[in-house]
């Protein structure tokens, strides 16, 4: 029986009216091969670029394995990045506050630290922190 360890870390970003927080849950998860796991990020205010009516690259998910740089998995809330296996899926609403990353049929190679990143288009700035 193989257990897979997923460490979930939240990102923070700031807008022109003050700090907006991203809360990511669960913070730690142990699962077995083949199980489905869902991680959630919740922002304290809506994410998106009101000026263009869309999100573009406002929300993404990353996986970082020990000794490696973070690797983009999902961008624009639900678009899989090139090379991301189809067992990964992102979900959430443009201009929303709740976002999920689901891994269907998790595999040992999915072990690592997962990050969500929210970008603030209002002030054109973002912080990618651990």
From TrEMBL:
SUPFAM superfamilies: Immunoglobulin. Residues 1-18 form the signal peptide. Gene3D superfamilies: Immunoglobulins. This is Ig-like domain-containing protein. SMART domains: IG, IGv. Keywords: Signal. Residues 18-130 form the Ig-like domain. InterPro entries: Ig-like_dom, Ig-like_dom_sf, Ig-like_fold, Ig_sub, Ig_V-set, IgV_Light_Chain.
